[in-house]
């Protein structure tokens, strides 16, 4: 979908997360750039992809899914290359982000996504039940001692990553993409199946 709007103004339609639609930031962008932002909120990358893939991509100009969904959108021919002539600050992207961009968002010499953030998946615990000086690792999520009181990520990538780190497959996370072997994936699967009986839910 191209940028639209009358009287010289432009409207940018964005599909993003609940937490990314701060009205103060929206107003600042509209004032500084001279555009109108129409925000549609979503709760997951899979829902963004489903709505985009069902033809609703015509409603949006920009989507902000997690990085693992950008290649899906590229493969489904739902994304257009980033216009480097317009995005003049691409040189300011951190080098580590550029590595992700080249390995995950680039195809045929074209770049289809811009990395905007980086973070870690952790776990939280109730300090009334778990000592604050416990050994902090993903082992907590697979510990029989807390059976029935564990809630796991309801997301295949996050849950599998937690299980893989618990199993000691740290080397698989060293590159720009996760590189688990078929045998390791099978072990992760079996570990998660065994864990299920310990869970209060996802």
Task: Write up what this structure looks like.
With 202 residues, this protein is an alpha/beta fold. It has two domains: 102 residues, Periplasmic binding protein-like II (D-Maltodextrin-Binding Protein, domain 2); 64 residues. Helix content is 30%, strand content 13%. The protein contains six helices and seven strands; from the N terminus they run βαβαβααβββααβ. The chain has a three-stranded parallel beta sheet. A two-stranded antiparallel ribbon has the order 4-5. The longest helix has 14 residues. The chain is globular and about 55 Å long. The chain starts with 9 loop residues before the first strand and ends with a strand. The N terminus is likely disordered. It comes from Halorubrum persicum.
Fold blueprint:
Layout (H helix, E strand, L loop, with lengths): L9 E8 L5 H11 L1 E8 L2 H9 L8 E2 L6 H6 L19 H10 L1 E2 L2 E2 L38 E2 L4 H11 L15 H14 L3 E3 L1
Parallel strand pairs: 1-2, 1-3, 6-7
Antiparallel strand pairs: 4-5
Helix pairs in contact: 5-6
In percent, how much strand structure appears in the residues? Answer: 5-15%
Number of domains: 2
SSE topology string: EHEHEHHEEEHHE
Based on Cα principal axes, name the global outline: globular
GO molecular function: polyamine binding
Keywords: Periplasm, Signal, Transport
GO biological process, one term: polyamine transport
Subcellular location: Periplasm
